[in-house]
Amino acid sequence: MLEDSFYGITVGTEIVVLSSNKIKKATTVNGEGYFDVYNILSYDNEKIGYFHSNPFNQSLIVGMYCGNYT
Q1: For residue range 31-65, what is the model confidence (pLDDT) as tens digits?
Q2: Residue 26 pLDDT level (bands cut at 50, 70, 90)
Q3: Which domain holds residue 50?
Q4: Is 62 left (phi over 0), alpha (psi -120 to 50) or beta?
Q5: 41 strand-pairing partners
Q6: For 37, what's the count of Cα atoms within 13 Å in the CB-facing half-sphere?
Q7: Does residue 42 form part of some domain?
């Protein structure tokens, strides 16, 4: 397992190299508007976190958030 990673995902990783059964693209909204995120899924397909891409390079992960979503 990599240090400074969650579920094998590290900030700075290219999104394309991630297993498609670990992530699912979604749209979320905040006070600034709508934006794309990628939900991180557990082995049971439960959302266990999410990340978003770099606005200047959409292929790279720039921020990642993990938590309890039940």
Answers
A1: 888 988 999 998 899 999 999 988 899 899 988 88
A2: very high
A3: 15-66
A4: alpha
A5: 47
A6: 17
A7: yes
End-to-end Cα, the chain, rounded Å: 26
Torsion of CA 45, 12, 58, 8, to 10 degrees: -10
d(CA 2, CA 8): 7
Length of the chain: 70
> Cα separations (Å) of 39 from 27, 47, 60?
10, 6, 15
9 belongs to a structural domain: no
Beta pairing, strands 33-41 & 23-30: antiparallel
